[in-house]
Design brief:
Bound molecules: adenosine-5'-diphosphate, magnesium ion
Order of helices and strands: HEHEHEHHEEEHHEEHEHEHEHEHEH
Family: Belongs to the cation transport ATPase (P-type) (TC 3.A.3) family. Type IB subfamily.
Strand content: 15-25%
Shape: elongated
Subcellular location: Cell membrane
CATH topology of the largest domain: Rossmann fold
Organism: Intrasporangium calvum
Radius of gyration: 21 Å
Number of strands: 13
Protein name: Heavy metal translocating P-type ATPase
CATH architecture of the largest domain: 3-Layer(aba) Sandwich
Number of helices: 13
Keywords: ATP-binding, Cell membrane, Membrane, Metal-binding, Nucleotide-binding, Translocase, Transmembrane, Transmembrane helix
Number of domains: 2
Amino acid sequence: ATPTAVMVGTGLGARRGVLFKNATALESSARIDTVVMDKTGTLTKGAPEVTQVVTDGADESEVLPLVAAVEKESEHPLAAAVVSYAAGLGLPARVASGFRNVPGHGAVADVDGRRVVVGNRKLMEAEGVELGGILARRDELASQGQTAVLVGIDGVAVAVIALADAARETSADAVRALHELGVRVVMLSGDNQSTAERIAGQLGIDTVIAEVLPGDKADKIRELQQQGRSVAMVGDGVNDAPALAQADLGIAIGAGTDVAIETADVVLMRSDPLDVPTALRVGRGTLRKMR
Ligand code: ADP
Ligand code: MG
């Protein structure tokens, strides 16, 4: 790249809040043919809210304080949503002991002498929680695009907490703009397959890689690269950092975590998914001027 072309490209990007950290980032962005986007906090606002609590007959006001006690110890965005929902109902706070976080799955603790497990199906299975009829309700909520969290108390699944996380206003437009650039768009998520597929469908994304553990996101990028793709990864979370580093181009959402921003090659200061196609266009324009 000629220094002038790089300066022009970097300046063009900066005016739109797209920060290229170096000349290599600008050059890589010109070659991208696949964009992988994290779901929570990237395509969605990352501020989930409880929409519904379904129990198998158990009293919601007895179940929620137990769940909230566990989630108060967790740093997961879903946990914060559950805690504030319970507080909003004016339910009394309980204290958890023996808290254990299970990354990508949920959390476990003892509350009032009861073993409380909150998270996905795999966690219920790992903790020996009997699923029973509540599983059908979880599937139903997940197929609506909601994140459905299971609650196990003393070895039995007694409730499902449904949470919705609204898509960012421009996510669908961003996918469309990427398709117009001839770029394939993939959604990557730790969430349930049917939840992820539903949201991907609403946004026009054709490929979904879901139920990916936090440590496995980078492997998914590597697999795409091994198929000959030139991959950009867009993410916001701590668990996106290894994938951002693995990608040919790591793009961080400006509102994301420090680790993501530090690891990425490009930072989107406005946290707007539409700035992803902008970044690729700036890169292509710069490369054209260099020839
Ligand atoms: P994402 O990539 O969507 O942020 P994670 O990989 O962090 O998701 O978690 C994957 C799934 O594990 C969540 O969709 C949820 O079902 C479950 N989970 C993880 N942590 C928690 C928690 N603290 N409370 C409830 N469920 C959780
Ligand atoms: Mg995220």
